[in-house]
UniProtKB/TrEMBL annotation:
Protein name: Tr-type G domain-containing protein
GO cellular component, one term: ribonucleoprotein complex
Organism, scientific name: Panicum virgatum
GO molecular function: GTP binding; GTPase activity; ribosome binding; translation elongation factor activity
Taxonomic superkingdom: Eukaryota
PANTHER family: EUKARYOTIC TRANSLATION ELONGATION FACTOR 2, TRANSLATION ELONGATION FACTOR-RELATED
Positions of the Tr-type G domain: 17-344
Record's keyword annotation contains Protein biosynthesis: yes
Keyword terms of this UniProt record: Cytoplasm, Elongation factor, Protein biosynthesis
Length: 628
C-alpha cells in the first residue's frame, strides 16, 4: 500500500533541505533497476516480497523483453525517517520527512543520452557496480559524465549474493575484491579536482559506500554494523567504523585490535570478522534449512519473523531473513540523505555549469540560492510520450521560482539567441504533474528544487528548452546538454507507399522529440532499431516502411590533384591507428575547375545545378570515402 499521498508530496516540496534529486547510474546489467525496487517498495508503491523482480522503473514493453533499461524513468518517493536514524545527521533539515526524486537511467552504451538528460536535473548519483565484474567501460563513462555536471556520487557494491551462493568466496578474498572495486572507482573520481565540489572520492569507513544484493533486497553500510558493535565493545560508532575497514585486524582469543595480521588462526580483518562472516553464516544456515540454529541467531540480532515467513525454505527464506535484518532501503536511504546534497546546497556550486548568462544577475542569484520567490528558471531535459498518441510531457527541473498550472512561460529553445526571437515562444502550461514511474499525479504548482512534468508545451519544445516567466525578457537560457556519444550508424528509411510520406515526416518529428540525442542519426544499431520501432508506433495510422541495410556513416570530400598524395598518406596512417575500421580510397584527377565548383558556396539559384554536377562527378570520380 502506498504510504503517501500527492498532498504530502506537495507539502514536502517546500522543504528544500529535505529533498534529494538523484540518478542511479551503472554499467549494463549491474543491477540498477533491481536495486531501485527496494527503494520503491519502502515507499509502499510495490510489495516488499516482489522487490527485485518487478523492476518498477522499467515501464516499457521492450525493456521487459530485452531485460535492460532503455529510457530513464523518474519517480518521486516520500519517506518518514526515524529520529534514531537521523541522530548523527549534521546538515540542515526541516523535520524527519524526506522527498527523493529518483531517476533510474540506462546502463547500455547505446542509450548514454538518457543518462545525460537524467544527470542534468539531479544533484547526486548512486553508482552501482557489480562486485565481481568491477568497474566497467560504461561505469567510467557515466561517472565522468556525472562529475562533469558536478554531481556528487555515492557507491554501492552490488550483487554480493554471488559471493555466497554462486562463487563461495572466502572472507579475505572478498575484501580484496571489494577494495579493488572501490579503488578503481576512486581513481576515476580523483582525476576531477573541483574546489567547489570538494573531495568526491568514496570511503566505506565514512559511510559513502554500501554493499548490496539488489535481487534479494538487502544492503548495508559499515554504519549498520558499527551501531551493532559499538555498544558491545564500548567504543564510539565512528571509531568502530574505522576498524571495520582497512588494515585493522581483531583476534577473539586475545580480544585485541592490531594493524597487522598476527598469523593466528583466529586473527581476521575487521570487515571479514564482523560483517562478511556473520552474513555468510546466516545465508548458509537458511540455504541448508537449519532452522533450529537460525531462530536463536535471529533472536540475538533482534530480528523477528512472521509466522507465515517461518514456513519458507531455501532461497525464499534467505531472501526474507536478509530483507528483515538488513533492508536495502534503510542503508541506501541513510547514505543518500547523509551524503548527497540537497538542492539548496548543490545549486550554490552548480550554477556556474548551468547558467549561460552573467553569474551576478538576478537569475543566476535565484538559481544559486534555490529561491522559490525568485524568477522562474526551469530546464526541460527530455520529452516523455503521453498516453495520447502524438502528445508529450515536458520533463525537467525547477531551479528557481515556481511553475504552476495555467502559468504563461517564456520558452527558449536550444537555438535561442538572447535579444532575438528565433526559437522563442510564450505559451501557457496546461497542467503540472509529479512523475511516479508508470503513473502521474497532478499538482497545482511545483517549487524550485524539484522535478516536474508539464502538459501543453510539446508543440513548441523539440528536445530541451529553458523556461522562465513571461515578462523576464532579460533571462539567458540554461546551458544545453553535451552528449557523450555521436551518431555512428545510419539507415535509409522510406515509405513503401508514396502517399504515406507526410505521415513518415510527422513520425520522424515525433521521434526527434522522444530521443534527446537523436538528430535523425542514432548513435548505435540497437538504438537505431528502437527508433525505427518508435517511429512506426508514434504514427496515428500504421504505414509500411522500407529500410535499407544499416551501416556506418561516411563522409566524402573531393580533393585537387596536389592533395592526393597527402590524402593517401593520411589513409595509411588511419589504417595503422584504427586496424578494425575499414577505409577505402581511390584517387583520380578531376576535370579542370571542378574542385573549385564543388568547394565554393553556391548561390541559391544555381544550387540544383551544383548538386547535379556533384552527382555526376561522384559517379565518375570517387576520390576519398572514409568511415567516421
Amino acid at each position: 500500500m502506498v504510504k503517501f499521498t500527492a498532498e504530502e508530496l506537495r507539502a514536502i516540496m517546500d522543504k528544500k533541505n529535505n529533498i534529494r534529486n538523484m540518478s542511479v547510474i551503472a554499467h549494463v546489467d549491474h543491477g540498477k533497476s533491481t536495486l531501485t525496487d527496494s527503494l520503491v517498495a519502502a515507499a509502499g508503491i510495490i510489495a516488499q516480497e516482489v522487490a527485485g523482480d518487478v523492476r518498477m522503473t522499467d515501464t516499457r514493453a521492450d525493456e521487459a523483453e530485452r531485460g535492460i533499461t532503455i529510457k530513464s524513468t523518474g519517480i518521486s518517493l516520500y519517506y518518514e525517517m526515524t529520529a534514531e536514524s537521523l541522530k548523527n545527521y549534521k546538515g540542515e533539515r526541516d523535520g524527519n520527512e524526506y522527498l527523493i526524486n529518483l531517476i533510474d537511467s540506462p546502463g547500455h552504451v547505446d542509450f548514454s543520452s538518457e543518462v545525460t538528460a537524467a544527470l542534468r536535473i539531479t544533484d547526486g548519483a548512486l553508482v552501482v557496480v557489480d562486485c565481481i565484474e568491477g568497474v566497467c567501460v560504461q561505469t567510467e563513462t557515466v561517472l565522468r559524465q556525472a562529475l562533469g555536471e558536478r554531481i556528487r556520487p555515492v557507491l554501492t557494491v552490488n550483487k554480493m549474493d554471488r559471493c555466497f551462493l554462486e562463487l563461495q568466496v572466502e572472507g579475505e578474498e572478498a575484501y580484496q575484491t571489494f577494495s579493488r572495486v572501490i579503488e578503481n572507482a576512486n581513481v576515476i573520481m580523483a582525476t576531477y579536482e573541483d574546489k567547489l565540489l570538494g573531495d568526491v572520492q568514496v570511503y566505506p569507513e565514512k559511510g559513502t559506500v554500501a554493499f548490496s544484493a539488489g535481487l534479494h533486497g538487502w544492503a548495508f553500510t559499515l554504519t549498520n554494523f558499527a551501531k551493532m558493535y559499538a555498544s558491545k565493545f564500548g567504543v564510539d560508532e565512528s571509531k568502530m567504523m574505522e576498524r571495520l575497514w582497512g588494515e585493522n585486524f581483531f583476534d577473539p582469543a586475545t580480544k585485541k585490535w592490531t594493524t597487522k595480521n598476527t598469523g593466528s588462526a583466529t586473527c581476521k580483518r575487521g570487515f571479514v570478522q564482523f560483517c562478511y562472516e556473520p552474513i555468510k553464516q546466516i545465508i548458509n544456515t537458511c540455504m541448508n534449512d537449519q532452522k533450529d540454529k537460525l531462530w536463536p541467531m535471529l533472536q540475538k540480532l533482534n530480528v523477528t519473523m512472521k509466522a507465515d515467513e517461518k514456513e519458507l525454505v531455501g532461497k525464499a527464506l534467505m531472501k526474507r531473513v536478509m530483507q528483515t535484518w538488513l533492508p536495502a532501503s534503510t542503508a541506501l536511504l541513510e547514505m543518500m540523505i547523509f551524503h548527497l546534497p540537497s538542492p539548496a546546497k548543490a545549486q550554490k556550486y552548480r550554477v556556474e555549469n548551468l547558467y549561460e548568462g552573467p553569474l551576478d544577475d538576478i537569475y543566476a542569484t535565484a538559481i544559486r540560492n534555490c529561491d522559490p520567490e525568485g524568477p522562474l528558471m526551469l530546464y526541460v531535459s527530455k520529452m516523455i510520450p503521453a498516453s495520447d498518441k502524438g502528445r508529450f510531457f515536458a520533463f525537467g527541473r525547477v531551479f528557481s521560482g515556481k511553475v504552476a498550472t495555467g502559468m504563461k512561460v517564456r520558452i527558449m529553445g536550444p537555438n535561442y539567441v538572447p535579444g532575438q526571437k528565433k526559437d522563442l515562444y510564450v505559451k501557457s502550461v496546461q497542467r503540472t504533474v509529479i512523475w511516479m514511474g508508470k503513473k502521474q499525479e497532478s499538482v497545482e504548482d511545483v517549487p524550485c528544487g524539484n522535478t516536474v512534468a508539464m502538459v501543453g508545451l510539446d508543440q513548441f519544445i523539440t528536445k530541451n528548452a529553458t523556461l522562465t516567466n513571461e515578462k523576464e525578457v532579460d533571462a539567458c537560457p540554461i546551458r544545453a546538454m553535451k552528449f557523450s556519444v555521436s551518431p555512428v550508424v545510419r539507415v535509409a528509411v522510406q515509405c513503401k507507399v508514396a502517399s504515406d510520406l507526410p505521415k513518415l515526416v510527422e513520425g520522424l518529428k515525433r521521434l526527434a522529440k522522444r530521443f534527446g540525442a537523436l538528430d535523425l542519426r542514432p548513435p548505435a544499431l540497437t538504438w537505431l532499431l528502437i527508433c525505427v520501432r518508435e517511429c512506426s508506433i508514434s504514427m496515428k495510422s500504421r504505414i509500411l516502411l522500407w529500410l535499407a541495410s544499416s551501416g556506418p556513416r561516411r563522409r566524402e570530400h573531393l580533393l585537387r590533384r596536389t592533395c592526393v598524395a597527402f590524402a593517401l598518406r593520411s589513409v595509411m596512417l588511419f589504417f595503422m591507428l584504427m586496424p578494425f575500421t575499414g577505409v577505402v580510397a581511390r584517387s583520380f584527377q578531376l576535370p579542370g575547375g571542378s574542385s573549385m565548383l564543388l568547394s565554393s558556396r553556391p548561390s541559391q539559384g544555381c544550387w540544383s545545378q551544383c548538386t547535379l554536377w556533384r552527382s555526376r562527378l561522384l559517379r565518375m570520380h570517387l576520390v576519398v570515402s572514409t568511415v567516421f
